[in-house]
Amino acid sequence: MFLKIFQFFSKASKSPDLRRKFFITATLLAIFRLAAHIPAAGIDRGSLQAFFLGSPLLSLLDVFSGGTLANFSIMALGLTPYINASIIMQLLTYVIPSLEELSKEGEFGQEKINQYTRFLTVPLAALQGFGMYTLLRSQGVIPSLTPIFLIALVVTMTAGSMLSVWLGELINEYGVGNGISFPVSYARRVGRVGLTSSYIPLRVNQAGVIPIIFAVSLVLLPSLATQFLAGIGNPKISLLASQISNLFNPTSFLYNLVYFLLVVGFTYFYTSVVFNPERISENLQKSGGFIPGIRPGTQTSKYLSSVLNRITLVGAVFLGLIAILPSFFQNIIGVANLAIGGTGILIVVSVVLEVTRDLESQLVMKRYETFLR
Description:
This protein is an all-alpha fold. It folds into two domains: about 15-185 and about 340-373, SecY subunit domain (Preprotein translocase SecY subunit, Orthogonal Bundle), CATH 1.10.3370.10; about 215-340, no CATH class. The protein has 16 helices and no strands. α14 (about 275-285) crosses α15. The longest helix is centred in the C-terminal third of the chain and has 36 residues, at about 300-335. The chain is globular, with a radius of gyration of 23 Å. This is Protein translocase subunit SecY. It holds the Pfam family SecY.
């Protein structure tokens, strides 16, 4: 297996064009990592590191920021606001008819939606930057800032997030793989249906790692709220916050049960967003295609929904188990913190597979170009 991987990358490195793309990708990633070490103003690094060591939840959020949150650098927000904006826009295309029509207009429509996503990223980044400042201030990690310095901090963090987006898009255009997945550790899923093929590619894990990102965002809210409430100073509120924090400790049964159920639920939800049986059935009927033994139209849509639900069940349970297994092993082995969790493993595998598929497609294009010459 490792020999095949070595041979594959050896073959890819022989192409001058791919070598150039590798160099561009490595350079842009190096710029991102350098910027990730530029600290934001007014931060006590010692208190910040102690705060993160005592909070496994924030350590998990640090994974989605590309490792910049623990340093509280100007890139601390990473691509999290862009991810949120992308998810919101993707959901809105199924709610707002004008956006749905725009998404069907090919490359022009997709570019307009991407533009709207960037616009939405700016206020989300500013809001998340202010929220992060409020949380860290309540824990004594960052002092209270004057309005001018607070605005400067939020603007700087927003600019850092947009810089991450720009670097990711440069990798998309000039580098190898999905530029968003490298710094953010996030693989964006796009539903592709080959109507010219003899089969419809229904994957067991159609939603990718998006359900885990959704689930983490929700399951972390109680713990983040308790950390904020604990800094208020009211004894009764602090006691209530402590009790809620114990209930939603990452090693507790309730936390893992809620986490598992959220992952399963969001897997079904996002799969229905990415793969729309009614739209697939409509496209099949327009192109003259059909599923043998199934009448075109409504019957095809119902059949696809039935098959998709059965397949998604396996993928949803798999994602849920991967998400909670690290906590399970921590309780058995007694290790306080694992080096990498199930979420991190899924992210790494998704990125590697995406880069491999991108390289394979580019190698195939090179073969065709050689043949045409």
